[in-house]
Sequence to fold (852 residues):
Amino acid sequence: MNATGIPLREPEVSAAAGETEQLERALIDASTRVPVLMFYTSAVAWLVLGTFLAGFVSWKLHSPDFLANISFLTWGRVRPAHMNVMVYGWASMAGMGTAIWLMARLCRTVLRYPLLLVAGAGFWNLGVLLGVGGILLGDSTGYQWLEFPGYAAIILFVAYTLVVSWAVLMFRFRRGEQIYITQWYLLGAFLWFPWLYAAGQLMLFVVPVQGVLQSAVGWWYANNLLFLWFGAIGLGTAYYMIPKVIGRPVYSYHLAAIGFWSYALFSSWTGMQRLVDGPFPAWMVTASIAATILTLIPVATVGLNHHMTMQGYFPLMRYSPTLRFTVFGAMSYTVFSLVGVLISLRSVASYVNFTQASIAYSHLGLYAFFTMVIFGSMYYIVPRLIGREWRYATLIKLHFWASAYGIGLMTLMLLAGGFLQGANMESPSLAFSESTETVLPYLRGRSLAGILLTASHFIFAYHFGLMLFGLGRKSTVPTFLNPVEAEAKAH
Amino acid sequence: MKGLAPLFLGIFGTFAFSWVGLTVIPNFQIGHLNPQSDEEGTDIYPMPQSGMVARGARVYAANGCIYCHSQQVRAPYAAADIDRKWGDRRSAPRDYIFERPVFLGKARMGQDLANIGARAPKEEESPPPAPAGGASPAASPSPAGSPSPAKQGVASAEASPAKAAASPPASPAATASHSPATSPAPKAPMSPAPASPAPQGAAVSSSPAEAGAKAGPAPSPAAASPSPAAAAVAAASPAPSPSPTPPWPEQTAGLPPMYSEAWHHVHLYSPRSINFDSNMPSYRFLYRTRRISDMPSADALQLTGSDAPPQGWEVVPTYDAKCLVAYLMSLNQTHPLKEVRSAAPPAAPATSPAPGAQPPK
Fold:
């Protein structure tokens, strides 16, 4: 406890954690160092590349003549390249890095078989590289979210098999009876992903289903990737980071259980809402809309749980970078789900189905929720791997605000633009071009938001690079966003 | 939570539930559809595509057309797709049984392409570059009575009688006699006027001109009324008269008729030469500029203005570009399906505003 009366240090330092326990943690952290840093470093590299591609995509959408005559830079190739770099390069790798570290910590065992993970990270990088190269060279499969050509998909699958077999092994060696909430989510994510990926690949490429069902399988895969893979890692991480940083147990274990199982049950059924009014049996879409509405149950329970855990500790967000990012992400999960419910309702969906609003939805899930939580976890984990603290509090603050304002602006622009675009598209008395022209100013606004996000990612990459090269601060006190002592005196 | 087994079972169970519910059961329901045919086993729809069309689909996939163009027409109660003349009936699963990959699409930064091939002018006619806005669609009332039993369903909202007459080789005489005389009534804002069936060059070239005069996406009965005078006036002035709401994309002077193969090539090469406001990227990398050796190639693009190659040079499509256009031209869901009620059967007077139109039998 410090002068402010709130535990700013890690709980284990201030609480009654024995020397042995601290030593054990340090050993575990050290054992995760190489594989986790490998995942993180690759992820940050992909993030920077993906940001370049994103800027490109965003710019070309309202200025179509920009570098248009080069085949591998045409908009229709750069867009899937951007998406796949972000999904499989950045988000998946960073998520796996965090998940691996959390697994080791929560299983309370030193990371075994690190070579599995190192090989997994290597193959994963190779797979993404080949896949993105394939897309840019015109080898895209044409299925959204599964554009990687077969040769890349196989490598990704091999890489993933290595990682998941490691995770299962870790679970066998775990100590302690209790399985913490985070582990439910992580085990779910680790198992759901290969099943999903295998099911998607099988039904689209190996024994392809007929006609429109390909689209159904594609969106079933994409939505489940968003919820069962990214969503599960994000929520699991939030369940670890929030209680850990504020040094207080999760408010209710039972709420958490309800939240987890309702999440697994309902969110996995939401995929077809993206096909609303399409050439499908109506029950498929209706079932997904119903499931989307029912995801309000996990949203409410998870949100309530986090809120009650944080109750009285919100001022800590002023100091802890991890907490600030994680709470932002956890709150975005609520917003993401609410927007999902809104745009899935048939009356709304007939307007926004084919507009930029669906892009806003994906970005809310993948960025405002997942990526922010992962940023938070990286601010927590990296110092423990390297033994140095983050060098500049200012850079963290800049990173946070640029990210927060960037994604906020982007979401608003795309949602507002999408609704107007949809309204015009649904007025047949207006020429179709009205609908695309209406959205152009919002797309320029989105490019502006993209500049903010680009800045934030460069700041983060720079800061991460400093840490990687051992240029962090040598200190036993974590880097706080605002000086704790000075403020405490002022009060 | 204690024990790994219940956790694992739950994780597996929820996944399996979703997988079975959303992919396996639909696969039982609509995963094994056959083409439909009439009693004699003829008139099979849809037919598998091959050759250039199949390759064109891969070009479509490779260049990400799907990120801006959907290929599905939603039902009239759900959306305005049919009012936009993107199709005459909603799309159904059977329309796609031979498509792989299927390009339903999730965004419309460009038009829906489900029927882009059906909106093309009939090939054999290939009228000369029309001078005026192709917006309006002419449903000349005349061919209403044309007997077109075989493909009647083809006639769609868009294909109001005029077009219906176009597809079957049924009654060229009747059409020919009527078309030039009766001013074509606005049919479909997006549909190419040259689709008007008349085989005569005169008739064809007059209709687009006329169309430009009263381009209006929502055909009003007034505009529809046959008025030869108006037609004459419009035909006299080649420039598209300022229309209140120009449909998109507008037929531009000096260009091939809208949605014809030649038009697609020019559009892919230089979208903004056709529609200034278009934000479609150009796909020049699918074209080659080369020196004319002996004779200008028959494939050479009809480019104008700043896009035109220098004297002695020509722009020709690569094989990929030809395949892509072949694929676009193959996109056609106008064939009626038993399970889908055509929103506007040719008989329905509601959608063929021409007052004089007689419902074809």
